[in-house]
Amino acid sequence: MAEDPRPYDIGPLTASWIRSLRARNLSANTRRIYARAAGQLRDFLLTYEPDEPGRRTAPTALEGVHGVHREHVEAYIGDLIERTSAGNAHQHFRSLKTFFNWAVDEEEMERSPMRTMKAPTLPEVEVPIIPDDSLKKLLGVCKGKDFVDRRDTAIIMMFLDTGARLSELTERTQAALDLDLMVVHVLGKGNKERPAPFGRATAVAMDRYLRSASKHLGRALETTDPLWFSVKRKEALTIWGVGTMLERRCVEAGIDHVHPHQFRHTFAHLWKVHRGDEDALMRIMGWRSRQMLSRYGASAGEERARAQHRELSPGDRL
Fold it and tell me: Reading across the β-sheet that carries 177-178, which strands appear in turn?
């Protein structure tokens, strides 16, 4: 039988993979990341044209002589690095390696085209912490008493006070929140739930938001309701909605754009500044490796070192 000249479509196979991830009860955010990587690789392969003569053309089968090879995946990863960033390419690399390993386990392929590939090298990028004056300005533009202001204040306070990731704090229901104990139960990496504590000021902000949300909905809140509501549709606020809100609030405050993950780095920095226990920080942040202690808040490491030197200077103690 002649080889089909059309590019091979991995879409049906990746759809089966995503369904298997759902069956494994992986978080919605993890499935979204994996699906995006697989979907973009599919689009790339369907329109792939080698940039040099003599190189492999677009695959017309899943494996074999005309199948998906390492060269195709390397071209995709290289294209991602050029168009986006090494960090994004690294994330896609990990996702696709999981996909091809699954295909081998399911006996759809004999060998993964990525079996000997190495992940892209990640440059050391220090995420800047959010300055105190920027935090004050950001909260200052949310000082109103309507539903949106109450909600946005509560979201910003929760990010700052828990150090939780964007998906951890966004994709929650009312059942995850305990205002009396002042904790919100978040679902972290590996589908592991942990309690993220917060302080009195954040508890007050959350209480005000919840009362405002009840009025916004015209009914009492239920445990199955989302933790955060959108304005017009009165549905669950998505991670994209939270990102858009922060972008808009930064413009209103006249400050540089703040990415949600900067709150996590800022939390770690402030914890270290005030000599918080490192084991407690690891529990709060959901870290299993102590290497994360040096990565988070690294951009302000010199500031912390100077502050401690002022206290511990051997010369000053003579």
Answer: 177-178, 183-187, 193-197
